[in-house]
Amino acid sequence: MSNIRKLTPIIEEIDSLPDIGVTSRLALAVGSEGYDASQSWLVKGLIPGDSSIGLYGPSGSFKSFLALSLCCHISIGKEWDGRKVTQGNVLYVVGEGGIGVPRRIRGWEKHFNNGEPLTGMYRVKGPVFPATREAVFDVINDCQYIENQTGQPVKLVVFDTLARCFGGNDENSAKDMGAFIQGCDAIKQGTGATVMVVHHSGKNEEAGARGSSALRGALDVELMVKRDGKETALTLSCMKMKDAEAPDTFAYDLKSLTTHFDEDGDPVTTLVLIPEGREATTSENKPNAGNVSGNHQAVWQAVRSRRKVGESVSQQVVRGDLKAQGIDTKNLARWIAKLVDDGQLIKEGDLLFMPDSCL
């Protein structure tokens, strides 16, 4: 009753408007209008334009090398692992890494750009805190400054890492994470750029990125990085792809090269990611099959977790588990079919089972 009383003045005000219902005040669309709108991509099939991206992994997993590889390719429009790339300026907030980041960029320039400097790759030498209005204004201002100087817009803004750009707030607090997300959204809206946040995984790597789950819910794409076995390599898995099919998991090798020589004549080296995907090394915590996406892994893990404690598992149960993780399940039947075809799941009627070797 109290809620009705609160609404009464609003209803009376609406009733007094002379042109109520004459024109639309909202962004109305009819039926399937807009169904054929094309998805914009920075890296086709991996990094959408005008979106929110999370890239997470444990310390030492080479996640910053991957982020920089994508940034460098975008800054000159160079194809990445056979994927078409849309060229645009990049603003990279170096919250941690010190002199390591410019050396990694120099390594990329020497290996992929004939030693020529990347004029579209801009760095902020220190953390920025998107949860504050001042920082949001500064980032939008500098993106506009870059566009004014170059005639090209900033297409990607990267915060590396969330921890260093969180301003001492609590990562586990939904309120604090919400403020960070709102700041990133404001930057995205004010620039038209994609915003990528580089983040750490939690103590349980399989549980996803560290901190409040509000971050994952706000992302359009979530990418997970791990070391590939004991090699100087990483595996890249897509754990969430909001408006497209998630790409398969692949491994990428990193190559050591010399950037320059120090005052004693000793070589100074860095690593450069080679964007040529290969089959990832298998592990007991994921399907023993190549070219599986994060969605396939999520299905496999959902079945495995329930079967290990003796529960029966149907497709509907798996659907509920995936939805709880924020995963769009419209292609669930296809994911299950691939895992069955690869021998990673057994399907009997509507029930799903694990091969003995996977339990």
Please give a quick description of this structure.
With 359 residues, the chain is an alpha/beta fold.
Structural class: alpha/beta
Oligomer: single chain
> Helix fraction?
25-40%
CATH topology call of the largest domain: Rossmann fold
Question: How much of the residues is beta strand, in percent?
Answer: 15-25%
Termini distance? 55 Å
Give the neighbour order of strands across the main sheet.
Answer: 5-4-6-7-3-8-9-10-11
CATH-defined superfamily of the largest domain: P-loop containing nucleotide triphosphate hydrolases
Low-pLDDT parts are none
Largest sheet: 9 strands, mixed
The overall average pLDDT, rounded, is 88
Strand runs, count: 13
How many domains would you count in the coordinates? 2
What does this entry look like structurally?
- The chain is α/β, with parallel strands linked by helices and 359 residues long.
- The protein folds into two domains: 41-273, Rossmann fold (3-Layer(aba) Sandwich), CATH 3.40.50; 294-358, Topoisomerase I, domain 2 (Orthogonal Bundle), CATH 1.10.460.
- The protein has helices at 2-15, 63-76, 100-112, 133-150, 174-191, 214-218, 294-308, 315-324, 332-341, and strands at residues 41-43, 47-48, 52-57, 89-94, 121-124, 154-160, 194-200, 221-227, 233-241, 250-261, 267-273, 346-348, 351-353.
- Strands 5-4-6-7-3-8-9-10-11 form a nine-stranded mixed sheet.
- β4, α3 (100-112) and β5 form a beta-alpha-beta unit.
- α7 packs across α8.
- It is globular, with a radius of gyration of 23 Å.
